[in-house]
Amino acid sequence: MGLVEIHDLTKRYKELVALDHFNLSIEQGEIFGLLGPNGSGKTTAINCMLQLLTYDRGTIELFGEPMSPTRYDLKRRIGIVPQNMAVFETLSVHENIDYFCSLYVSNANRRKALVAEAIDFVDLGDYRKFRPRKLSGGLARRLNIACGIAHKPELIFFDEPTVAVDPQSRNAILEGIQRLNQEGSTVLYTSHYMEEVEQICTRIMILDHGQQLALGTNSELKGLVDIGEKVEIELATPDPSVVAAIQALQHVAGVSLEGNALKLTCLRGARGVGEILDLLHSSGVTYGRVYSEPPTLNDVFLAITGKELRD
Amino acid sequence: MPAFRTALKLIIRHWPNVLLYVVGLGMLGVFILASVNLTSVATFSQAKPNVAVIDRDHSALSEGLTDYLATRSTPVTLEDNTQALQDATAKNTTPYIVIVPAGFGEAFQAAVAGSSPAPVLDTVVNYSAFTGQYMDQVTNAYLNAVRMVLTAEPDMPLDQALSQAATATDQQVPVEVVEVEGAKSIYYKAYFFFRWTAYPLTAGLMVLVAMVFSTFLSGEVRRRNLSSPLPPSRMSSQVAIACVTLVLFAWLFMLLLALIPATGGLDLLQGEPGRFGILALAALIYALVPLAIGFLVAQTGMRSAAQNGLANIVSLGFAFLSGIFMDDLSLMGDTVLKIAHATPTFWFSKATFAVQEGAPMSTFWAYNGVVLLFAAAIFAVGLMVGRLRTQTADAGGNLAAAPA
Amino acid sequence: MGTTFLTTIKTLVRQRDVLLWAIAFPLVLSTLIYAMLGNLDEAYAIDPVDLVVVDDATYQATTGLPEMITALSVEGVQADGTALLDITYVDSDEAARQTLADGDYVGFITVDASGEPAFHVDARYASSTTGTRASIVKIVLDQYWQTASLVGAMGQADPELFSDPALLEKLATEVSYTQRTSVTANPVSDSLAYMYSSLAFSVVMMMTFALAAIEDIQANTSALGARRSLAGQSKIRTLAPAIAASWTVGFGVQLIGYTYVKFAFGTSFGGKDPAVLLTLAVGVLAMTFTGAFVGSLPIASGAKSGITATLSCFLSLFAGLYGTFAQDLAESAAENAPLFALANPARQVTQAFHALYYYDGYQQFGQAILALLALAGVFFVLSTLMLRRKRYASL
């Protein structure tokens, strides 16, 4: 029995179906990624799980118990980090974290320690007296996170926590999530940035239009598409004739020439870019730089839906 | 009580609003009262308005009149030109001006003899019509006395007649000042001040309560709050308790102001502590009304600048309609009076008048009951609006339909 | 610059709460003031004084007093006259005191054995500030008693006097020697003062627009302001049209208010409309610069609207808005602190209207306009200092 069990969840806004017979199962100790473009239903799913929204059918169980708006005992074990800043503008960093922690932890001494830990965790020690308005985007996000995790919840919902955040803060956030996971929290992480999801999530679900499209670990998902690697070679001089030759190779899925750039996808298998380069060499085609990358989740998404993950 | 503490913090952080509305408007009332001089009188002092006589006649009669008027008024010297006269009237410095036309003395004597109609003096009156009537009476009293003397003794020399008239009009009837049980206008100022407190209380409490509730009810903070193990009802009641604390402080501050000597409240407290107490109680009961209105306003979701604007409109409008800026409700027209009945401040005002005029306590409690009903009704509407908004949001309002 | 001007106008009129604040509030206020105080003139004029009379043997025995009282009262007044008194008759001293306690009467009258009337005044009405009503009763009684004594003295000196009925008739016929006249350009009106001060109140509120406009220009007051500060334009080119736009919107709102007050309530401005428009224009100008100054201050937006509100209320208090008490306060403040009165735009606007209505010439009007222009000048300088292009310690 997973920590989170959702069966057949359906949520409609008039004609629009936000969640369509949605199923989800998260095991304890996972960092579960929910990946999908804008409007795919990620935040709606979280809102339903938190009982902030009514839904038309389906069941939601958290910690093995059916979830309802008044299950405060279950809510006590959950932390949320919403997409937008959810803090009091007129309170300082310390006051904000203390308030939200106090909703979960009534013992003042214990709370004091937890708040101090949380501030250290997000590295806002120098800013405890600052008001949110005075913080840069990245720092403000860290405050947002601290408010959600100070009480050391067992289950944490992160709803797109890295939108509009500088790379340094972004890495700090991702590392922090991994640390929280190591310390025992189960994480549901939603995003439309596949790199992040690939980086930290143990299992990933791709969804679109409220429906699950694919589910599995990073490698399992990439196994869904028949791509080995994607290659791009800079030719010294563009030579259209070489395109046909490469196309003829068995392990090449598709090839195109754009200006000086030769772009092709190889199927999965032992043969790869090496064969291509040999062919070019033997054809007398000189080339410069060679780029090769393994398939991404975007490719998975593209293969399944026919469109890009990020619009 | 996490929400309670934080709500209080929010209120304290908005101290400029507290300062401007509660303190500022409260002090406004103190200023007004400080400028009014109402002392308790045991003797009757006849009104002595500023009066000017423009004598274009320079006859014995006009001089006699001028001398007589000086004993019954505060004489003011004005130059005889349009500018000075307009100034005196427009600036309200001289509410009564008598212009004695040239030849008045002669025409007067001729009229007494019966050979021509009586001449008239021009009088210029400013605002208070009573002053005009009063001084008219005074002027006519003197002139008629002269007339009577000359009618009875046509051959009497004029100056003798004038002095006889002056002697006669010097007489005054005896006056007794009656202290009436239950009618305490001596504490007039205190009553005015207690009524005035409705204005700062309405404006200040509306703004602050609306601010606190809307901060807890708005957007993402609300989501965090709802996801927490603190039940929404408990959270709301904690916020409400913080608001009630604010109400108490604001009310206590008003009482403090009432004890400033200028407002006359100290006199009332020393003279009639019981009345002071029930007036204070009425003010506290009334303070629940802006508490409820602030709650309702927060439920509607309007922005802070709009909340401020609404608070000012409502507080000033209610204040005017309830007649707390005037001392006489009867000066309001009938239609306005009817509309006023629909405002809670009006009933608070009536409650204070009931105390002032010594009406039975049952009347006082009845009026306070109406005020409480208003507060309860407004609060109920607020709950309803809140529920409607939540349902709408749940059914796909902005927050939930945000890009996921 | 033209674009900035038009854009500022658009942003100002599209902010619903600013409009609510700046338009609805003054209109509601003037309506209220009119409803409450508009018929003040009539209210003051025709209210008879409530009086109790002890109608016993001694009262009836006096010569002429009952007849005089009746002639002045509501029951006995002539069709074309106004009643001075509203009499309630009782039959004893105790009854009179009881009636006084139960109701709202100025006092009661008794007559002693010698025929001399006495006036027993309710303590409430005994001071000279609230006692004008009582004073009227007293003067009526004084006049009666003086006449009665005079006639009595004349009769003693010459007993033949009373044998001539024609003479007695002449003696008894009272003559009115006074008539009302006006020295001002227009007749005196108490309620006008309140309508003028409510208009003045709304003029002060016009600082709201400049406040909003400037907040969007200053780097330290909004993100939008920061963006605009970076534009390739001199500060003047950004500010001047914004100020001009604020003034335009403010003046437009005042035109609405003025038209409303003039036509809905028939408020008279002495028929000098161009001068009234000038007053409004200059008043709005002064408040526009004041608003620009307040808007440039680095404090919270909510606090600024609070400042606008309280400032308007406070200044209007000293322009006499809140009732008779406020009128007195305004006058005494003008006497004791003339500089404050000069610096109070609400008062100067009220004074300007006042001057147009009561005076023939424009001297007092000119003084008020100059005061407003001076105020505009002062805040122009202050806001220029605040709004210079500058760098900040923190944003």
Description:
The complex is a heterotrimer of chains A (311), B (404) and C (395). By secondary structure, chain A is α/β, with parallel strands linked by helices. In chain A, 34% of the residues lie in helices and 29% in strands. Chain A has helices spanning 42-49, 72-75, 93-102, 108-121, 137-149, 167-182, 194-200, 218-222, 241-248, 273-283, 297-305; strands at 4-13, 16-26, 31-35, 57-62, 65-66, 78-81, 155-159, 186-191, 203-208, 211-216, 227-235, 252-258, 261-267, 287-293. The mean pLDDT of chain A is 87. With 404 residues, chain B is mainly alpha-helical. Chain B has a 4-stranded mixed sheet. Chain B is elongated and about 105 Å long. By secondary structure, chain C is an alpha/beta fold. Chain C has 2 domains: 2-40 and 189-387, no CATH class; 46-172, D-Maltodextrin-Binding Protein, domain 2 (3-Layer(aba) Sandwich), CATH 3.40.190. Chain C has 18 helices and 5 strands. In chain C, α13 packs parallel to α18 and α17 (345-358) runs antiparallel to α18. Chain A binds chain B through residues 13-14, 16, 18, 36, 38-45, 47, 50, 52-54, 70, 72-73, 75-76, 78, 80, 82-88, 90-91, 95, 99-100, 102-104, 147-148, 190, and chain B through 2-3, 5-6, 9-10, 13-14, 215, 219-221, 223-231, 394-396, 400-404.
* Unreliable stretches of chain A: none
Query: What composes the largest sheet of chain B?
Result: 4 strands, mixed
**SSE string of chain B, helices as H and strands as E:** HHEHEHEHEHHEHHHHHHHHHH
Sequence of secondary-structure elements of chain A = EEEHEEHEHHHEHEHEEHEHEEHEH
- Gyration radius of chain A, in Å: 24 Å
What characterizes the major β-sheet of chain A? Answer: 6 strands, mixed
Give the strand order, joined by hyphens, for the main sheet of chain B.
2-1-3-4
What is the CATH fold-level name of the largest domain in chain A?
Answer: Rossmann fold
Strand segment tally of chain A: 14
Count up the domains of chain B. Answer: 2
Provide the helix percentage of chain B. Answer: 55-70%
Number of helices of chain A: 11
- In terms of structural class, how would the helical and strand content of chain B be classed? mainly alpha
Query: What gap, in angstroms, lies between the N and C termini of chain B?
Result: 34 Å
